Amino acid sequence: MDQLPLPLEGITVVAVEQAVSAPFATRQLADLGARVVKVERIDGGDFARGYDTAAGGLASHFVWCNRGKESIAVDLKDPRGLAVVRRLVADADVFVQNLAHGAAARLGLDAATLCAAHPRLIAVDISGYGTAGPYTDKRAYDMLVQCEAGLVSVTGTPEQPVKAGIPAADIAAAMYAFSGVLAALLRRATTGRGGPVEVSMLEALAEWMGHPLHHAMHGGAAPARTGLAHAVIAPYDAYGTADGGRVLLSVQNDREWRRLAEQVLDQPALGTDPAFATNAARVANRERTDALVAKALGALDADEAVARLEGAGVACARLRDVHEVAEHPQLAARERWREVGTPVGPLRALLPAITLPGGAEPRMGEVPALGQHTGMLLRAVGMAEDEIAALRRDGVVA
Predict the structure, then answer these.
(1) 230 is annotated as an active-site residue
(2) Tens digit of pLDDT for each residue in 367-385?
(3) Would the pTM of this model clear 0.85, i.e. be above it?
(4) CA of 59: how far to CAs of 63, 99, 205, 289, 344, in Å?
(5) What digits encode the pLDDT tens for the residues 213-229?
(6) Angle at CA 48, nearest 5°, toward 101 and 82?
């Protein structure tokens, strides 16, 4: 049987993007075969290039979000630079932007303007708070939106709310933009028309707040912050082991509790003790429940604790740090790591989480240097060498 091609081969995306939300969305498209042209500022490019130097001298955010793209550096404030982008958009299937509110409209690069000029174009506006309302002009960075969406209020310990350790608002918006493009491409295949796609970071993350939001809205109290513990299930927490590790376990029903009591705690009577026999009782006696589990696991090393829990049919996990994740045996066994070319040499990267068996492997292209493809792209839109030289001389492109 012939191998299926990547699903987005033949699709061209132009992105005026920065930071995480739009770049992560368009990286998904690139991995699935789309050609992605990344339009960057001439003075340093996407400011995520400068966040850190942890990835062999490159910024870790940038390496993560921008493989497989072609970089063109253009001054959009110069009419000649803006004309270059408009020529690129004229031949594109998808346009994505996440500039500050109002900036794209001032340039004529907002979704409504572009879709009116190009009926088959799918144009995505990613914003912090949407295109209308009292927060429309408010600056929106990931941690700010985590606060506004209530994520911080349910994350952390009883004493201290904390932000998520990843840019959850950016990622939520990126994945809705990605799926929005796929949906719009399907609609275009049947109607012949593209159209605008709008994604707000606040609305994306508010959707992800589904359980605590619905719990509170429909009559319950807002879920308490409980650190690694579950607010309404016990035992469901991380416990220290004799070798300094931590193992998280989750007892989902009373049958599992009885198995835990018999096979791990070595106290089968706890399985029917009224103080512990039901989840409601265990939650009411959370401190005593946790102390029993902590004592049993604290006498075992992490490997033995996991083996005992799995033998008892109790769900469990190791509390791994990011270095351990990079060496995770499951990721290694499934051969999920690849090397991606960058300006500083090859770097490890994970295959995309979407797996399409029977098809071509995702296209994990190189991370581009700033303006690496400027000349090639200008020639592709029909510019002569003297025109290109003039634009470079005048600082319109780099």
Answers:
(1) yes
(2) 999 999 999 999 999 999 9
(3) yes
(4) 6, 20, 25, 45, 11
(5) 998 999 878 888 889 99
(6) 50
